[in-house]
Amino acid sequence: MNDQGADFIYTGQQPVPFMLPNGLKEILDYDQWLAHSEKQNKFPLLTPGQWNEAENNIQSPISFIKGNIHSFNQSFLEKIRGNQQVVLVVSTDNAHAMPELRRFFYTLTELKIKVPVIIQRTYQADMGDRLTLYSATDIGGLLVDGFGDGTLLSPEFSGEATHTERLKAASAFNSIAFGILQAARTRMSKTEYISCPSCGRTLFDLQETTAMIRKHTEHLKGVKIGIMGCIVNGPGEMADADYGYVGMGKDKIALYRGQEVIKRSVTAAKAVDELIELIREDGRWIEPEEREVLV
Ligand code: SF4
């Protein structure tokens, strides 16, 4: 299974004509879902109005209800209070999405509504690096504050897009969505690296070392590794890391487990191997090739 595989794929009006791999589940527009004879791993997406009409006749363990925040009025929200079979998929047209969505989450909190909420945003497919910036700003800040349970990022094309262009956009949006979830600690799907910007106290090539450590450890899903230039400020800056690789002098590295120094004055030539050994001692090491078989 791909570590960055989504849990659900939204196919709307175009159901996937084959069995989806690795337990991936499909969300269909309500009319398509109703028309589909085989409903295993398929879930309906309704508007608030459709859900109001069909509420008691939806034979699905989960129903997704999608709408602009203004379509979820107070009487509707009170109706879903305590319902464990609905998930809200919430969007906004406001260019300043984050504050408006935050206000919506405050409303949910005030009304004591705890249903899961997916934050939906649509961006132009060709935004390049701005996509990372905008989506992280719109969604990341909410997740960090504990608002929202997932995200649905949708690419929008200015004209006709080829199949390849759609696939490329889907892959880029998927990767950014997982990056936001990881940075907000909502869902860990890859190794986390915490690195200092380096300064005059750094006595090794921080970028090169970080790249080398990443090369050896990037398959360790959920493990947090701090790579810090010096022992003076490094340990404080990597406070929530599981392991630390910290410079303590010329060709001298200290290795940490959490905030505890485990090995001192390790030479740079041996430090990565020693770091791997430390992770192995904790039972958190997985051989890269073994991982291919296990997941
Ligand atoms: S951790 Fe040390 S080397 Fe890195 S930026 Fe801070 S003071 Fe400089």
Describe this structure in words.
The chain is an alpha/beta fold. Helices cover about 35% and strands about 25% of the residues. It has 10 helices and 12 strands. The protein is elongated and about 70 Å long. The chain binds iron/sulfur cluster. The site of iron/sulfur cluster has 13 residues, from helix 8. The site of iron/sulfur cluster (SF4) has 13 residues, from helix 8.
Strand order of the largest sheet: 1-2-3-4-5-6-7
Poorly predicted segments: 291-295
Ions, cofactors, ligands: which are bound?
iron/sulfur cluster
Please write the string of helix (H) and strand (E) elements.
EEHEHEHEHEHEHEHEHEEEHH
Label the structural class: alpha/beta
Describe the largest sheet.
7 strands, parallel
Average pLDDT rating: 91
Our count of helices gives 10
Percent helix range: 25-40%
Q: Please compute the radius of gyration using only Cα atoms.
A: 23 Å
DSSP strand tally: 12
Amino-to-carboxy terminus distance: 5 Å
Q: Percent of residues in beta strands? A: 15-25%
Shape: elongated
Which descriptors would you attach to this protein?
five-stranded mixed sheet; disordered C terminus; seven-stranded parallel sheet; 12 strands; single chain; 295 residues; alpha/beta; binds iron/sulfur cluster; 10 helices
